Amino acid sequence: MTSTATARSQNSWDFDFSTPYPTQDSDLLKQLSFIPGLKEILMARQVHALEHATVWVLGDMARPRGIGDRFEEQQDNETLGGLSTDRGFYLYGPVNRIHLGRAVRRALERLKSGEWDLALHPRCGTNTSVSRLLTAGFFAGISLLFPRGPLEQLFAFGIATTAAAQLSPDLGNLAQKHLTTSIPFNLEVDSISQTTDLWGRSAYFIGVRWCESSVVR
């Protein structure tokens, strides 16, 4: 019986970015290995997804549990933040190291098992960037339709900002899904250490390593 991943790999240039599968980035890396820095880009996207999922899992862990309580919605802990690199990610905020270790591994397991929505987060910088681009684009277009007076231009800016605020959440999620994150099928957690980032801020750094063959458990 031919698996989905095997069927896709029979056509070396048939990359399906709409439905994640375990060898998607490995296949892409094999076919486009001549592109400098491609592996680092792919790793950064996978790490980005793991960062988001870890924040979600930590939020769930911090939520008080009641008898018979069911958690069908993810809980966002706004005291936590992250910064991804191609070697791992920094996690900022009050968190217990033991809980963090459990959360990272649980997040990785859930992502690989099909809970792909964990890879997206509303507080991601991608959404902020999309919002700014939309605002600038809308204002550039709308301002041409209004007189050049300051009040009229301020009104145009207000319209642009409102329109961007309405569209940016959905478009930001699309940008995260297809551009800035990828399901971390190739990642394994390597280390968790307390450190400081480039700006001297205290954080935990979750180091990861690339694995060519990743089995979904």
Summing up helix and strand content along with how strands pair, one would put the structural category as alpha+beta
| Topology order in helix (H) and strand (E) letters | HHHEEHHHEE
State the domain count: 2
- How many strands, which pairing sense, and closed or not: the largest β-sheet? 4 strands, antiparallel
Strand order of the largest sheet: 1-2-4-3
Mean pLDDT: 87
Shape: globular
Q: In what range is the share of β-strand residues?
A: 5-15%
* Tally of alpha and pi helices: 6
Percent helix: 40-55%
Radius of gyration: 20 Å
Poorly predicted tracts of residues:
1-15
Q: What gap, in angstroms, lies between the N and C termini?
A: 20 Å
The number of distinct β-strands equals 4
Task: Give a structural overview.
With 217 residues, the protein is of the alpha+beta class. The chain folds into 2 domains: 18-64 and 71-120 and 182-210, no CATH class; 125-176. Helix content is 48%, strand content 13%. It has helices at 4-9, 24-31, 38-62, 97-112, 125-142, 150-180; strands spanning 81-84, 88-92, 187-196, 202-210. A 4-stranded antiparallel beta sheet has the order 1-2-4-3, covered by helices on one side. A hairpin with a 5-residue loop joins strand 3 and strand 4. The longest helix is centred in the C-terminal third of the chain and has 31 residues, at 150-180. The relative contact order is 0.17. Mean pLDDT is 87; it is low at 1-15.
